[in-house]
């Protein structure tokens, strides 16, 4: 614990004090190669934090915990729906985004999902050709 305390109370503050951070953006042009080298740990750490944060945000937006199904019949080991093709109407749209409140039928929720995530999912649309056509 003492090593951690020394790192945060002594080493880190003296590192920051030693950084040649200029007062103005124009001052960046005055920095030498050695000055830039001293800032590599700081810039590298900030860059890594930014990249990891963006990756985490994107992962959370896209799939939460990695599961496609976020809310449909979560008490079951597997979600299966079966329809007799004779019972389907002339047109039916089935959800493929797993966000529909009327799952397995599409209720248009894919529009909001696509807008929020940049995804491009849509329903499976079935239609029966009429006997006369
Ligand atoms: S609501 Fe899921 S595809 Fe339309």
Automatic annotation (TrEMBL):
Segments forming a coiled coil: none
Compartments in which it is found: Endoplasmic reticulum membrane; Membrane
GO biological-process terms attached to the record: intracellular iron ion homeostasis; regulation of autophagy
One Pfam family it belongs to: zf-CDGSH
Keywords: 2Fe-2S, Endoplasmic reticulum, Iron, Iron-sulfur, Membrane, Metal-binding, Transmembrane, Transmembrane helix
GO molecular function terms noted in the UniProt entry: 2 iron, 2 sulfur cluster binding; L-cysteine transaminase activity; metal ion binding
SMART domains xref list: ZnF_CDGSH
Annotated GO CC locations: endoplasmic reticulum membrane; mitochondrial outer membrane
Record membrane topology: Single-pass membrane protein
Cofactor(s) demanded: [2Fe-2S] cluster
Domain Iron-binding zinc finger CDGSH type: from-to ranges: 78-116
Cofactor binding remark: Binds 1 [2Fe-2S] cluster.
Family classification: Belongs to the CISD protein family. CISD2 subfamily.
Protein name: CDGSH iron-sulfur domain-containing protein 2 homologue
Organism: Strongylocentrotus purpuratus (Purple sea urchin)
High-level lineage: Eukaryota, Metazoa, Echinodermata, Eleutherozoa, Echinozoa
């Amino acid at each position: 614990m003492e090593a951690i305390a020394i790192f945060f109370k002594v080493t880190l503050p003296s590192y920051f004090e030693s950084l040649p951070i200029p007062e103005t953006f124009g001052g960046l042009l005055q920095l030498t190669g050695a000055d830039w080298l001293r800032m590599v740990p700081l810039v590298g750490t900030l860059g890594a934090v930014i990249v990891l944060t963006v990756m985490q945000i994107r992962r959370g937006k896209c799939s939460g915990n990695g599961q496609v199904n976020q809310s449909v019949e979560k008490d079951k080991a597997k979600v299966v729906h079966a329809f007799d093709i004779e019972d389907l109407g002339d047109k039916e749209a089935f959800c493929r985004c797993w966000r529909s409140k009327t799952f397995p039928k599409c209720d248009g929720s894919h529009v909001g999902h696509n807008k929020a995530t940049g995804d491009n999912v849509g329903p499976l649309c079935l239609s029966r050709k009429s006997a006369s056509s």
